[in-house]
Amino acid sequence: MGNRGPTIADKLDRLFKTVRPGGREYSYEEVATRIRATGVMISHTYVWQLRKGHRDNPTIRHIEALARFFGVSPVYFLDNEAARQIDEQLELLAALSDKSVRHVAMRVAGLSAPSLEAINGMIEHARRIDRLTEAEDDPSRQPAAPTPDDMQ
């Protein structure tokens, strides 16, 4: 893959893994059947081939149909920067589908900036304990976490 970024297969796989009705992954047949119902001819085998990278040059009609099915812009498949931004939104939606995460998010609404910073610091500490820190948790993109001295 080199510096080219994610492939169509990578992006389609990401959609299958994050756009999950009732917590389950769509089947290839389900995707193909619903796309065919819109008038675009596609087989479940072709959807599988695209996802696995065995085919990598879908028609614009197939790109548009897959994008429509998964609820993203067709640009997702064509522009890596747009795909990155859409992936971030999909991650947020996936996280908010978790009842516990949604409950925490609802409870912080309306808190002051210092309170939000304190909570963010606690969350970052918990993520480090659970070894969940990731590259996108770049401190330059987050409010500064308070130190123990700040909390006294």
Indicate the topology.
Elements: H1 8-18, H2 28-36, H3 44-52, H4 60-70, H5 75-78, H6 80-96, H7 99-108, H8 113-129
Helix pairs in contact: 1-3, 1-6, 2-3
Write up this protein.
With 152 residues, the chain is mainly α. It folds into two domains: 95 residues, 434 Repressor (Amino-terminal Domain) (Orthogonal Bundle), CATH 1.10.260; 32 residues. It contains eight helices and no strands. Helix 1 packs across helix 3. It is elongated and about 55 Å long. The C terminus is likely disordered.
Spell the H/E element sequence.
HHHHHHHH
Number of domains: 2
Strand content: under 5%
Distance between the termini: 50 Å
Number of helices: 8
Question: In oligomeric terms, what are we looking at?
Answer: single chain
Structural class: mainly alpha
The CATH superfamily label of the largest domain reads: lambda repressor-like DNA-binding domains
Number of strands: 0
Biggest sheet: strands, sense, closure?
none
